[in-house]
Amino acid sequence: MTETTFTLSRAEAFIAEQTAGVDQSFKPGAHFSAPIGWLNDPNGFFFFRGEYHLFYQFYPYDSCWGPMHWGHAKSKDLINWEHLPVALAPDQSYDHNGCFSGSAIVKDDRLWLMYTGNITLEDGTGRQVQNMAVSDDGVTFTKLASNPVMIGEDVPDINPADFRDPKLFEKDGRYYSVLAAKHVDEVGCIVLLGSDDLENWSFESIFLKGEKDQGVMWECPDYFKLAGQDCLVISPMQFPVVGDDYQNLNSNIICYGLVDWESKTFAVERIEEIDHGHDFYAAQSLKDNQGRRIMIAWMQNWGRKFPTHDLRHGWAGLMTVPRQLQLVDGKLVQVPFLTEGSSDWTSLQAGEHLESSKPWPIRLDLKTGLSQHWRLEAGSVADQLVLVWQDGQLTLDRTGLEHQLGGEEKEPLLTRSIRLTEGLIDVTVLIDRSSIEVFVNGGQASLSSTAYIAEHLLSFSVAEGQVEVALQNLNEIR
Ligand code: FRU
């Protein structure tokens, strides 16, 4: 395909003509996914004129990654989403190989986007350059005539072919952007750019440089303050495994630290994995009009098989449910935006079990304080996902699933666990047609994984103690 092949109007016409043919079998009912085609990172997640806007890495024409567009949707409640026209297509010389990830900010009641243009130069080498686009109505975007606004050659000590994913923020009347870059020392690093007007950008600092044992490249940074604490979210590729943590090929971490605004550098004090499931990557956050810090991530990991692509279902990729972030006693707490839980509780004693064939998505709430051993099975015996609480450990087990992960990743791929030394008090489980998300102890830990399960069957059994259970189909009450 030539450089000018991709346009917004071509994408819109394709979506309008082809979406009816998308196979809906595994399409999520309570998670955001694209109407058709491929989706990866959340982009431009921002609160604008009373609504939450979500953009995303999008290739409408196939269920696999391709030249990136920006898909777009908005929501009033972070639960129900309305699809909007494609916001960006790779139709310029400075983004012809893809409009890569980026972010949004509001200035003068206009919505501004900063994104990475992925390009190949005539000599065949790659470059990643930073571009801006602006919108008066929050729907139609105009790329600036002055693009690119920053190139990697103007940043010291980085490889200009790996310089991407700008995340905008404002501080003391000045605009900043943190970006991912590969340092010439072959480690990940975060670059800080600054601007007074969002149009003219300059290099400020190397905000943070990674260590040799912290992954080969850091993607999708996000800087914000949470309860007064400086936080830097990063998606490092090949972060080393430590016990039950960082088991995925690519992780998503939150660094707690301190920014020195003189030198414009971030000093890391502590690192935590955000989610302990198989699929949580490229998270991005916003602050809304109530001052809430809300995060959403791509519920997937690179280097894996994509079952809906292999099955030719015409779509691939979904987002996690958005979560409100809080810092409680120095610990990250994630409270998901979900349709309210049921007040219809059933009490199960040891040896008792509950079965359901309600269609998914389904929400299961558990009060488990008195039980040391219970088990949840989702799907049929031949195609089953298991969540088990035993010996102080909560384990999600994909061993019995028909659609296994596979891919370039090494073991351990089947299970993901969290050890809860303080015990397990409550659990909220969201099972959708292609995923499971588990939040424990009011959101003190979470496990998010894809799980493509055909039969909407559920069995919950208690082996020890007593558990209170509430179950509801989310489509019934939307
Ligand atoms: C992260 C990422 C980004 C890049 C985008 C391309 O998943 O690799 O670094 O901008 O995806 O689609």
Notable traits:
478 residues, six-stranded antiparallel β-sheet, Jelly Rolls, globular, mainly beta, binds beta-D-fructofuranose, 3% helix, Tachylectin-2, Chain A
Mean pLDDT: 95
What is the approximate shape? globular
Can you count the helices? 2
* Secondary structure: number of strands: 33
Total separate domains:
2
CATH secondary-structure class of the largest domain: Mainly Beta
Head-to-tail CA distance between termini: 43 Å
β content, as a range?
over 45%
- Helical residues, percent: under 10%
What is the CATH architecture annotation of the largest domain?
A: 5 Propeller
Radius of gyration: 22 Å
Predict the CATH topology of the largest domain.
Answer: Tachylectin-2, Chain A
CATH superfamily annotation of the largest domain: Glycosyl hydrolase domain, family 43
Largest sheet: 6 strands, antiparallel
Classification by helices and strands: mainly beta
Quaternary state, please? single chain
Strand order of the largest sheet: 22-33-24-29-30-31
Give the names of the bound compounds: beta-D-fructofuranose
EC number: 3.2.1.26
Catalytic activity: Hydrolysis of terminal non-reducing beta-D-fructofuranoside residues in beta-D-fructofuranosides
Domain Glycosyl hydrolase family 32 N-terminal: 31-336
Function: Enables the bacterium to metabolize sucrose as a sole carbon source.
